[in-house]
Design brief:
Number of strands: 2
Helix content: 55-70%
CATH class of the domain at 11-147: Mainly Alpha
Structural class: mainly alpha
Low-confidence stretches: 1-5, 234-243, 325-346
Radius of gyration: 29 Å
Oligomer: single chain
Length: 346
């Protein structure tokens, strides 16, 4: 049978496959939210699966060997291979299983997922296990950073800090992964500074942390000064223009700014919902707090005094101060209706 692209049946089959894939994706939203290194635990080879049934001393020893193999690959700059070995070591103790025997044909569904996260009865054994996990997560983070897979690097740092909340390396690496991508904005910048401040509080002598924190704080200070200078410049322009054209331009500018503002709010909301879908509720809350803050500032900015439309009270007040109040509506400024605004610097 002809299955070329010119064959209508082939085209129909292609569309059907895409539709099935989209429908299947809706059944595994939780699975898709997990980081790759945990997803891959579902597909481990028999050599790893067999180790899971061994007594803990043998089990941890085999996992350490896997980590050592990963370190050898890392030192050879074979980062993908290194990550694969770290994933194996982690999958000996924390892994996914599918309770549906026919899942490989049917596909992955959240309802069929079983999570095993082995815990030791002996506290000392648990310390050893946690140390192994922390080491593997950190190594994955470094490897993924070098591979420019920054979101996975951040997730690995998250898992590290869940086990070891005072891990300076995880805070430092996460800060780097937050600010390195070209798409990073103010939110990532602030989160990176927060991470570095936490790391500095734990280890004030760490040179890498101190250096990067100092650089980011200096950059933020310069940016805020630039923003303030730019904003202040709006009130220092004295060129006079035709009243009607200036007012129309101002109205158009304001409408454009409002449209842009609303678009940014929608994009931020979408980002917050994305974090919520991944279980990162603290990031979603941080974004929504910023949204609320921005809306409050904009609301205050819009409460302005419009000199193009002076009220009787404004005209009377102008006369009391020796000005011809009837001429107030002839005052013009470049690029905006002159407003007296009370703004809170944030």
């Amino acid at each position: 049978m002809d299955m070329s692209a010119d064959n209508p049946f082939a085209d129909l089959m292609t569309k059907a496959v895409k539709l099935k894939g989209a429908q299947q994706a809706q059944l595994r939203t939780q699975y898709d939210s997990w980081p790759q290194y945990f997803q891959h635990s579902l597909f481990m080879q028999e050599s790893v699966v067999t180790v899971r049934s061994k007594p803990f001393p043998e089990r941890i020893a085999d996992a350490e060997d896997m980590k050592a193999a990963g370190n050898a690959h890392f030192n050879a700059e074979a980062f993908e291979e290194a990550v694969a070995e770290y994933e194996k070591a982690l999958a000996v103790f924390k892994y996914l299983e599918n309770k549906d025997p026919g899942w490989k044909k049917k596909g992955i569904e959240d309802g069929d997922m079983l999570i095993t996260d082995f815990k030791c009865a002996d506290p000392e054994d648990q310390k050893q296990l946690d140390a192994l996990k922390v080491s593997c997560y950190l190594n994955i983070a470094v490897a993924k950073f070098k591979l420019k897979e920054h979101p996975v690097c951040i997730r690995a740092c998250d898992d590290t800090l869940e086990l070891d909340p005072k891990n300076v390396k995880a805070y430092y690496r996460r800060a780097q992964a937050l600010i390195t991508p070209a798409s990073s904005g103010a939110l990532e910048f602030d989160r990176a500074i927060s991470d570095l401040q936490k790391a500095y509080a734990i280890d004030p002598e760490n040179r890498g942390v101190r250096k990067l924190l100092r650089e980011l704080l200096e950059q933020r200070t310069k940016q805020r000064a630039l923003d303030k200078e730019t904003f202040s410049g709006m009130f220092n322009r004295g060129q006079v223009y035709d009243e009607d054209s200036t007012k129309k331009d101002a109205e158009l500018d304001e409408a454009a700014r409002e449209e842009e503002f609303q678009q940014e709010i929608e994009e931020a909301e979408a980002l917050a919902r994305g974090f919520e879908a991944q279980g990162k509720t603290e990031y979603a809350k941080e974004i929504r707090d910023k949204i609320t803050q921005a809306q409050e500032v904009r609301s205050r900015r819009l409460k302005c005094v419009d000199f193009f439309n002076p009220t009787p009270a404004m005209i009377a007040n102008a006369k009391e101060n020796g000005y011809d109040g009837s001429k107030l509506n002839r005052m013009k400024v470049h690029n905006a209706v002159f407003c007296v605004c009370v703004l809170e610097l944030i």
